């Protein structure tokens, strides 16, 4: 926790994380491709983290976190609390190391994510959403035992691993003007923005949130950590936060310029657009940056949208492609 009392993650930590991730295997350098839509003044690029082995950027933070622990820390196993994508990344890495991995998921967790966690050997424990969120806030859960807890967001090693996305973006598009990331807990944007602050500080950093679960927008407006008054869950489970984690507030407010809040209709339209124009399957949070970039009030320039993941239930994807909004 003390390691997050900073304005950015050190660049040397992120470079080290990148080396660890490439050398340990699993993580791939994902492509950066143009969105096949012409918009005057805007060139939109897609950072395809949905093409990681677990179909999410979360494999980066999870991989760096577990490889930063010593053998003694891993002897009793590890556990985490996750909406699904970080759990997959952690279980994937734990399986490779022969480490037991227990995952606490909310009872709303999608079937595709549950099946993937189990495929990678994760031991799944479903709990009510409010109890799950409490674990996210307190980093504790009774009855787990001596396993080492790895937080999916509030961990400097996790954020450093995620920051490797920023290094790759600069390798492929040095002239990037704007980067937009989904905001679930802040682990992705704070890692990427730390890279930009060190290497290309003129790059503007924005996030997007589901309008029914937009704690960062509320907190930035209030100038302090604020909970969402009328929070609601949706199929966009990668952006479902009720409040900004206090441990992440200093990082987020110093690195993020602003947040675009999106309707479920806008997010669904972006999911559909990615399939139709680029043959890309993205989950709600993964398509949300595209929805933000397409808005008329989003600034022009070379824009990179981080397509954070592609783990979406087939029936929900079909519903979206038919023009409807999943329940």
Automatic annotation (TrEMBL):
Upper taxonomic lineage: Eukaryota, Metazoa, Spiralia, Lophotrochozoa, Annelida
Pfam families hit by this protein: PALP
The Tryptophan synthase beta chain-like PALP domain, residue ranges: 25-309
Cofactor(s) this protein cannot do without: pyridoxal 5'-phosphate
Molecular function as annotated in GO: L-serine ammonia-lyase activity; pyridoxal phosphate binding; threonine deaminase activity
Protein name, as recorded: L-serine ammonia-lyase
Family that this chain belongs to: Belongs to the serine/threonine dehydratase family.
Ranges annotated as spanning the membrane: none
Catalytic activity field: L-serine = pyruvate + NH4(+)
This enzyme's EC code(s): 4.3.1.17
Entry-linked InterPro entries: Ser/Thr_Dehydratase, Ser/Thr_deHydtase_PyrdxlP-BS, TrpB-like_PALP, TrpB-like_PALP_sf
Domain of life per record: Eukaryota
Any one GO biological process: L-threonine catabolic process
UniProtKB keywords: Lyase, Pyridoxal phosphate
């Amino acid at each position: 926790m003390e390691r997050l009392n900073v304005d950015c993650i050190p660049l040397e930590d992120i470079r080290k994380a990148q080396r660890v991730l490439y050398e340990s295997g699993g993580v791939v350098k994902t492509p950066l491709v143009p969105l096949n839509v012409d918009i005057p003044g805007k060139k939109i690029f897609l950072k395809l983290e949905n093409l990681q082995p677990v179909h999410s950027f979360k494999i980066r933070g999870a991989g760096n976190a577990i490889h930063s622990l010593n053998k003694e820390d891993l002897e009793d196993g590890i556990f985490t609390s996750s909406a699904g994508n970080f759990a997959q990344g952690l279980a994937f890495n734990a399986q490779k190391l022969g480490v037991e991995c227990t995952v606490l998921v909310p009872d709303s967790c999608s079937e595709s994510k549950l099946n993937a966690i189990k495929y990678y050997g994760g031991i799944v424990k479903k709990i009510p959403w409010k109890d799950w969120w409490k674990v996210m806030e307190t980093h504790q859960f009774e009855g787990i035992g001596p396993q080492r807890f790895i937080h999916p967001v509030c961990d400097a090693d996790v954020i450093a691993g995620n920051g490797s996305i920023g290094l790759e973006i600069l390798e492929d598009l040095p002239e990037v003007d704007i980067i937009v990331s989904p905001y679930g807990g802040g682990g992705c944007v704070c890692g990427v923005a730390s890279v930009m602050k060190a290497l290309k500080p003129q790059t503007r950093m924005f996030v997007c949130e589901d309008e029914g679960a937009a704690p960062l927008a509320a907190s930035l407006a209030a100038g302090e950590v604020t909970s969402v008054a009328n929070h609601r869950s949706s199929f966009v489970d990668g952006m479902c936060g009720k409040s900004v984690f206090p441990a992440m507030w200093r990082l987020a407010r110093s690195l993020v310029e602003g947040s675009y809040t999106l309707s479920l209709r806008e997010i669904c339209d972006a999911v559909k657009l990615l399939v139709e124009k680029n043959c890309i399957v993205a989950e709600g949070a993964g398509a949300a940056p595209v929805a933000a970039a397409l808005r008329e009030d989003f600034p022009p320039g070379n824009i990179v949208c981080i397509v954070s993941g592609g783990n979406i239930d087939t029936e929900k994807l079909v519903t979206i492609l038919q023009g409807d909004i999943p329940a």
